[in-house]
Amino acid sequence: MTSSPDPAVSTSLREQAESALRALVGRDDATLRDDQWTAIEALVSRHARALVVQRTGWGKSAVYFVATALLRAQGAGPTVIVSPLLALMRDQVAAAQRAGIRAVSINSSNMTDWDSIHADIAAGSVDVLLCSPERLNNPDFRDQVLPRLAASAGLVVIDEAHCISDWGHDFRPDYRRIRTLLGDLPEGIPVLATTATANKRVTADVAEQLGVSRVAGLESVAKEVLVLRGALDRASLHLAVLRLPDQATRVAWLSKALREIDGSGIVYCLTVSAAEQVASQLRAAGLAVSSYTGQTDPAEREQLEADLKYNRVKALIATSALGMGFDKPDLGFVVHLGAPSSPIAYYQQVGRAGRGVDKALVVLLPGQEDKAVWEWFGAQAFPAEDQVRVALGALSISEVQSVAKLETSVDLKRTRLESMLKVLDVDGAVRRVKGGWISTGADWEYDQERYARVAQTRLDEQQSMLDYIASDGCRMAYLRSALDDPDLSLGWRCGRCDGCGGIELPAAPGAEDIARSRADMDRVGVDVTARRQWPSGMYTLGVNLRGRIAPSLQAEPGRAIARLDGLGWSGALRDLFATVPSEDGGERSSTDGEIPIPLREAAVQVLDDWEPLRSADVLIIDGVVGVSSFTRPILTGHLATGLARYLGVPVLGSFGSALGLEAPARHDVNSAMRLASVEKRLRLHLSEAAEGSLEGRTILLVDDYTDSGWTLTVASRLLREYGATAVFPFVLGVR
């Protein structure tokens, strides 16, 4: 720690800082908070490393923009900000421009500008560079651009720093690479980390990583880190939990409430399907809403953000893709249809509301399906050691392998495989290069104890969220306690939540509203698209398939009752396909029997509404072929024969296994391995009704559900090879 700065110099610096702040916020009366000034002075005068944990709307971005203005005035290099979301980057670039700071971003939406941005950085005309954590491991950026930036940076900022920590609610493997970046920084470059959502454990973890420096090439925790934590109460937030009996009632309440609540806001859903379905239903009810998810095109996201900011929509129906950094000071409400898996994540999302208004309504509507969604996300955790070892064994020190090629060796789905590789990259076991991945040859240890601790922490947080829902105490006090708010006093109550009796919610919907909502939700039918391209590298798995699938061997667009991760019929389908652990360590169906009557009626409705099955009101289907299930043989047989009976056509055959009654391969493997399993097992058995041929016939292909799509794709190809003119896939559900 250096000695304290001269008071006269410090006073002058504070005047400069507040002048920069006023330019940033556009107000002549703006002044710095005490902790803002403490952080700025430490960064500018002492080139310190600091962690600022303060509530959303406190002004964390003002700290690094004001510090940037002062450091640049002293001749320092540009500020590098690692920022996780495009929405955050766009807001920060706009804010910087207001203060006369030239900020640019490098992200997935502006690839065509990268070369010119790199040139501007080299020329010294950029004050702030914002980049995503994923860019830190882009080979060109990591090896060519980042070293120059690290050597010449005036300030390094890690925004949403809780993502660094295994214990953070939004841990991202690419953020862990920041530890290496910090360790390689030259002496004297200040570092700032900011977040609104960090409890004691996360704060300590992040502070430890901020202190990393290198001495003679060895890591050591040598830097003192200034930690500034503030109170987390948000006086504008009025919190409530509303427990309603079912999905239809929750959506009916939402439809009614959006007409009564002032302002515009965000409605969070746990899955993409739920967000899209709710948005569609609310639009049909005459409300100006749009869906915003991780699958929304980047250009469309920018437009949707603007629509919400300028109140052109009542609400965005969003997943967590619209979260950290989205800045709309007058956001009037946040409603959750389904609970996030931890109070910390919940606090982070509701923090979007009420930053510039006196009162914002925050309502959580938990659902019975929430725990199933949490469990699914939990299943995406770091893989077991044997799977990791297989991946490491498949990589070479010299031969680059793409992820698609690795899929032929490792039984992990692509997103989980890519996440695992990022962790191994940070651990030094593998390295991303142009074209794919290579092994470093370094020893690597599977930290089972660490992964178990993280998994247990996730379970503890889920229970804490359930306790929040069940609590009849002060909601804000509960959230502040969950985040270890240092200013929370014993017995404190907010006085404005449902637990304190200080909130009035829109009234419950009437029976007619609920019936209308249920009718809308009970609409059946979603598209099923069979594959059009074989995965690369299938020859390594002994499968001679490559390139595009010939149109003459493809399936027609198919249909299903619903997706399993949505609302309405999704609940009945999830119950139908529920599994329990099997004796061999895998899973088996919890039930097998005839299709429940409501689902029979829904399946028939899908067929009735499926226009391509008829020409001039004449059915074009000549027969049904079912896919026999090892785990649900009664169900799949009943489904195929029942649909054939309803359509008045014969069952022309079924698909079974070439390997007899041996259990099929797991479904949770990647695309290549799933295709290999299906291709090697699936065999068509024609019935007597087919009379030995399918020549010229149009087939309805029936299965219980589809996940990877390869069963339907391979089965359709075989049917077309047997002479079928067209194949229309039908399944009950889509995973």
Can you describe what's shown?
The model is unreliable at 215-219 (pLDDT under 50). The strands form 7 sheets. The protein has a 7-stranded parallel β-sheet with strand order 3-4-2-5-6-1-9, sandwiched between helices. The protein has a 7-stranded mixed β-sheet with strand order 18-19-28-27-24-25-26, with helices on both faces. Strands 10-15-14-11-13-12 form a 6-stranded parallel β-sheet, with helices on both faces. α1 (7-25) packs across α2. It is 39% helix and 18% strand. With 735 residues, the chain is of the alpha/beta class.
CATH top level of the largest domain?
Alpha Beta
Number of helices: 25
Q: In what range is the share of β-strand residues?
A: 15-25%
Whole-number tally of structural domains: 3
Task: Please give the share of residues in helix.
Answer: 25-40%
Distance between the termini: 56 Å
Approximate shape? globular
Please tell me how large the radius of gyration is.
28 Å
Largest sheet: 7 strands, parallel
CATH superfamily (homologous) name of the largest domain: P-loop containing nucleotide triphosphate hydrolases
Reported CATH architecture of the largest domain? 3-Layer(aba) Sandwich
Do you know the CATH topology of the largest domain? Rossmann fold
